[in-house]
């Protein structure tokens, strides 16, 4: 039994293929995790890194609370089952299962007990004396599972274990593996390219594509709340219908228009609460997704109706799938038409070819994606809400209330669009709001708040009192003010990015060994940031070295250090104060630091002024806040993120 932590894990193969990028996940004890995605997306590589069969380029892997990056596979207490079984052909089933235990010098009677128990769990007791070649694929895979079970590992890793089996056997084995997980009460990580396997077995699923994690969630949440078009299309059969279209708001409703069709649906604006407003102006093409099961051949089922022309019907016994086209004049074959739609209909439904039928759509179930990025424009936790506001004499009127603008936010009087991130909204403060509803989003408590004539969202602590009328606060440093789409006042960038290099020096250290002092030379590493050197702990240096490779000393690095982790000190990076950003309760020094870089082949130097923000208290503002003050900035080199710039890898 064990939990696992994957912390910013990367894999770059020697040929430069970035197979896994920034994989972060906490796996709880006893979970059944499925990695799913098309071939080549990095599932096996991730699994093999967990097994210890593949070196981790950067990042940290913990099993329980032990860092195992450099632990031998045999010491990790995991067992792996492969697609090709990997049984020894000359050994009987019994011997195949006992072999690993014998190598570990487990007493004979204990081996016997474990082998028989495992055989019993898997229903292969009667085959114990057989050789693998006299068994079917399904039976062989059971033996492979048995060989893993007898080791009583903390974690089971299964790499496409069913893909050599025929369809019927796969379904049977699927439920057997689920039952096995239930019986063994151990953590399982299972790799497959088959979304049905993922959906039916996983307690949580990791959807991957091109080396990147797309989404980690429960099967139900992946189906209901896909975070991008790829996940939406990958999960569910038949595949979600996708259309290009536009959304245009008129007062309380939004017209949903599907390109290339006459479909125009008038939908209440409340259906789009979570959607980014800029997509509701009708001038941006969006991808609209709706599943076959959310379209009904009964035109009275939902109030949103559309006509389509039937192409053909597939009878599935339990129901049927109607292939049709929303472009009733379409000349294209339905398979290639961008306006093709699949509708689920009751079993036995019959339609004529080219018959025009009216369907109704459950518009509460549609999915909206940006056409270019394919990311949802209506995430479960909305990133931000854009509202209208007016500034007059240093006071911002928005959402039926007034907020005094802090000194850092000096803008001319006038009307603005105010982008309020969800992370900026909290309980307390002065704006009157009403809690309309709340939902649990993967353990986070999301409130839907009616504020003035708009809806805002807030993440609040689980135990916060939040019902009915409440007061809310907006963290003004996170807010952006714009006019006609142009940013007038951006949110404060609290993460500072500074160029860096790793330096190595030799140092003599003296240690006492049995009363005698011994001197030896060791390598000491430091990060050089804008001509100031910060010593790294051994652990951080080790991570940078092992992730960065042999030529790490010549590579460009970047340290990410947020405003709260930078301090004014006696030693540190030279910085010049340019001003104070005063947000009332919080104050920041705005400084510039100068980075100098020698161009290759000594072709002169380039200098760059970088703006840096430092969180400070009122005393520090009094001491250093004058424009032109020279200060020194320092940070704890063990408490920052270090990136390798060229490969965009987080090393530490
Ligand atoms: P999946 O299991 O999702 O099919 P893999 O993890 O096997 O994908 O592979 C991810 C990517 O890494 C692919 O582009 C693959 O070609 C590449 N890859 C896998 N193994 C190696 C290797 N040993 N050397 C170089 N590239 C590799």
From TrEMBL:
Any one GO molecular function term: ATP binding
InterPro entries per the UniProt record, alphabetical: AAA+_ATPase, ABC_transporter-like_ATP-bd, ABC_transporter-like_CS, ABC_transpr_MalK-like, ABC_transpr_MalK/UgpC-like, Mo/tungstate-bd_C_term_dom, NA-bd_OB-fold, OB_MalK-like
Residue ranges constituting the ABC transporter domain according to the UniProt record: 4-235
Single Gene Ontology BP annotation: carbohydrate transport
Entry keywords, A to Z: ATP-binding, Nucleotide-binding, Transport
Any Gene Ontology CC annotation: ATP-binding cassette (ABC) transporter complex, substrate-binding subunit-containing
TM helices/strands, residue ranges: none
NCBIfam families tied to this protein: PRK11650.1 (NF008653)
Record-given protein name: Sn-glycerol-3-phosphate ABC transporter ATP-binding protein UgpC
């Amino acid at each position: 039994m064990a939990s696992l932590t994957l912390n910013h894990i990367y894999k770059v193969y020697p040929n430069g293929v970035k197979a896994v990028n920034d994989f972060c996940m906490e796996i709880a004890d006893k979970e059944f995790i499925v990695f799913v995605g098309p071939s080549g997306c990095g599932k096996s590589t991730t699994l093999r890194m967990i097994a210890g069969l593949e070196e981790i380029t950067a990042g940290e892997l913990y099993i329980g609370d032990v860092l195992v990056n450099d632990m031998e596979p045999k010491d990790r207490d995991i067992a792996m089952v492969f697609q090709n079984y990997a049984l020894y052909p000359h050994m009987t089933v019994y011997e195949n299962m006992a072999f690993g235990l014998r190598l570990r010098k487990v007493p004979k009677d204990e081996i016997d007990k474990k082998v028989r128990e495992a055989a019993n769990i898997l229903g292969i007791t009667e085959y114990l004396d057989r050789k693998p070649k006299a068994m079917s694929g399904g039976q062989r895979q059971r033996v492979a599972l048995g060989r893993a079970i007898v080791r009583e590992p903390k974690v089971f890793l299964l790499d496409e274990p069913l893909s050599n089996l025929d369809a019927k056997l796969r379904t049977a084995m699927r439920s057997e593996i689920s039952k096995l997980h239930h019986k063994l009460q151990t953590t399982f990580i299972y790799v497959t390219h088959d979304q049905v396997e993922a959906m039916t077995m996983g307690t949580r699923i990791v959807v991957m594509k091109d080396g990147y994690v797309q989404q980690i969630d429960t099967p139900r949440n992946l189906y209901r709340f896909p975070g991008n078009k790829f996940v939406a299309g990958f999960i569910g059969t038949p595949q979600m219908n996708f259309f290009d279209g536009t959304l245009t708001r008129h007062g309380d409703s939004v017209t949903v228009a599907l390109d290339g069709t006459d479909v125009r649906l008038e939908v209440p604006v409340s259906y789009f609460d979570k959607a980014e407003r800029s997509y509701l102006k009708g001038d941006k093409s969006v991808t609209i997704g709706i599943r076959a099961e959310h379209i009904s051949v009964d035109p009275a089922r939902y109030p949103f109706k559309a006509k389509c022309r039937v192409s053909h019907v597939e009878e599935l016994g339990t129901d049927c799938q109607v292939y049709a086209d929303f472009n009733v004049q379409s000349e294209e074959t339905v398979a290639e038409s961008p306006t093709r739609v699949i509708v689920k209909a009751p079993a036995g439904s019959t339609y004529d070819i080219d018959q025009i039928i009216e369907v109704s759509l459950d518009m509460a179930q549609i999915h909206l994606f940006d056409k270019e990025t394919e990311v949802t424009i209506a995430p479960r936790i909305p990133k931000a809400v854009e509202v209208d506001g007016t500034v007059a004499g240093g006071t911002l009127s928005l959402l039926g209330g007034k907020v005094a603008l802090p000194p850092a936010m000096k803008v001319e009087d006038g009307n603005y669009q105010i982008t309020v991130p969800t992370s900026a909204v909290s309980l307390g403060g002065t704006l009157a709001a009403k809690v309309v509803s709340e939902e649990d989003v993967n353990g986070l408590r999301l409130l839907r708040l009616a504020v003035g004539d708009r809806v805002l969202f807030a993440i609040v602590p689980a135990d916060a009192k939040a019902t009915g009328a409440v007061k809310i606060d907006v963290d003004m440093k996170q807010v952006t003010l714009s006019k006609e789409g142009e940013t007038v006042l951006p949110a404060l960038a609290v993460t500072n990015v500074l160029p860096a290099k790793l330096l190595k020096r030799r140092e003599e250290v003296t240690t006492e060994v049995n009363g005698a002092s011994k001197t030896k030379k060791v390598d000491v590493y430091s990060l050089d940031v804008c001509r100031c050197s910060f010593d790294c702990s051994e652990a951080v240096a080790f991570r940078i070295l092992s992730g960065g490779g042999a030529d790490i000393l010549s590579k460009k690095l970047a340290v990410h250090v947020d405003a709260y982790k930078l301090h004014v000190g006696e030693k540190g990076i030279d910085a010049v104060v340019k001003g104070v950003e005063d947000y009332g309760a919080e104050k920041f020094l705005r400084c510039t630091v100068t980075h100098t870089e020698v161009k290759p082949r000594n072709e002169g130097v380039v200098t760059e002024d970088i703006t840096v923000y430092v969180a400070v208290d009122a005393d520090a503002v009094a001491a250093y806040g004058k424009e032109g003050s020279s200060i020194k900035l320092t940070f704890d080199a063990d408490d920052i993120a270090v990136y390798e710039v060229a490969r965009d890898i987080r090393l530490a």
